[in-house]
Each structure stands twice: as C-alpha cells, then as structure tokens.
Amino acid sequence: MDVTSLLSPTGFRILSSAEIEELCEAIHSRDPWFEYYLKFALLTGMRRGETLALTWHDVDLWLNREIIVPDPRQPYYRDPKCRRIPIDEILLGILLDLRSPSRWVFQKTGRRMLGSTVSLFFRELSVQTGITVTSERIRMTYAMNRYLQLRPRSRKDWEILQENLGHRDVSTTRNYFQRHLSELPSHSVN
C-alpha cells in the first residue's frame, strides 16, 4: 500500500517517491552535498542533531558495518540518543563519498554543519520546488516506511521499531504512530 498521500491528524504528509526524486534533482543542481544529507536521513531515520553530531569515530565502515549514533555526552546537540544503525550498500556508498580528514561526517569546510544551515537550505528548497521539506518530514517518511515493512503486532516488533527510531521506550514509539496514523483506515495498518 502506498501511504505517501495519506495525511496525519496534523496534516503532516510523508514524502512520496516522486517528491524525493524531484528534491534530489533540485538539490543536485544547487548543492550536491545536501543530496547526501537527504539520502542519508531517509535511509537512517536519524534526527537532524544526531546526523550533524556524527563523527567518523561513530562509523564502522568495515568490521561491523554500523553507525553508532552519538551519545548524550556529545556537547554539540541537545540530547542525541545512542543506538546502532546497520550500514547497507547504499549507505556505505554515501559514507565513502563523504569520507574526509575532518572529524565530522557532515561538514563542508572541515567544521561541523549547523542545524540552522540545514533548515535554511530546506526552506529555500521548499520555496524553489513547492515541496515542503523539513528534517521532521524526512524522519516521518523513514518512520512510516519502517512501520509498513514491520507491520508491528508483537512487543518484539514494537521494540525493533523503537530501536530504529531511537525512542527511549516502546510507549513513545506506539504514541508516535497512533498520533500520525489515527486517520488511516483500520484495515490499512493491520
């Protein structure tokens, strides 16, 4: 089932495949670096602060092929969560393209990127394309896709989804989806 056109109670719509493709084309013509950011965020579901706080020390490209999301002691962003994200072939390609001598995975000048820089770029991109794009909308797109892949029925399923999203407990994850899925027909989420 394609849920890309479904609205949540807050009017928060996830990005469709066509919108993602259009955004990637527009980004590529403006600043290809942000295309990496968009694809990375769509593949990992990491929060903007987690993504921008990510250092190469947090990324294991070869042995376990995983990202260890920065822990709360990271001084640069408010309360990032700590979790592990597996690196598939697509994500590996993105990370190899981003590899640099800088400490930060997401940087353009050797210094960490600021959240305000990403937000400003997305606001300008939204005006240019007519597609509303925010870090939360990107994360919601990831979350809905994971939800539809898992179709959580048991506590174990919900715990997997909780881990994917970096929530502190299962009830947070359930509430997140109840809030955003309450307008879906009941047969489409079972």
Overall geometric form: globular
What composes the largest sheet?
3 strands, antiparallel
The order of strands across the largest sheet is 1-2-3
Number of helices: 8
Element-by-element helix/strand order: HHHEEEHHHHH
Please give the number of β-strands.
3
CATH homologous superfamily designation: Intergrase catalytic core
What is the CATH architecture term? Orthogonal Bundle
- Classified by CATH, the class is Mainly Alpha
Strand content: under 5%
Which spans of ≥5 residues are poorly predicted at pLDDT below 50? 1-10, 183-190
Q: Provide the residue-averaged pLDDT.
A: 83
Enter the CATH topology name.
hpI Integrase, Chain A
How helical, in percent, are the residues? 40-55%
* Distance between the first and last residues' Cα: 12 Å
Structural class: mainly alpha
Rg, Cα atoms, Å:
17 Å
Tell me the number of structural domains.
1
Characterise this structure.
The chain has helices at residues 17-30, 32-44, 48-52, 89-98, 115-129, 135-150, 155-165, 170-181; strands at 59-60, 66-68, 84-86. With 190 residues, it is mainly α. It has a single domain (1-183), classed as Intergrase catalytic core (hpI Integrase, Chain A), CATH 1.10.443.10. Strands 1-2-3 form a 3-stranded antiparallel β-sheet, with no helix packed on it. A hairpin with a 5-residue loop joins β1 (59-60) and β2 (66-68). The longest helix has 16 residues, at 135-150. The radius of gyration is 17 Å and the shape is globular. The chain starts with 16 loop residues before the first helix and ends in a 9-residue tail after the last helix. The model is unreliable at 1-10 and 183-190 (pLDDT under 50).
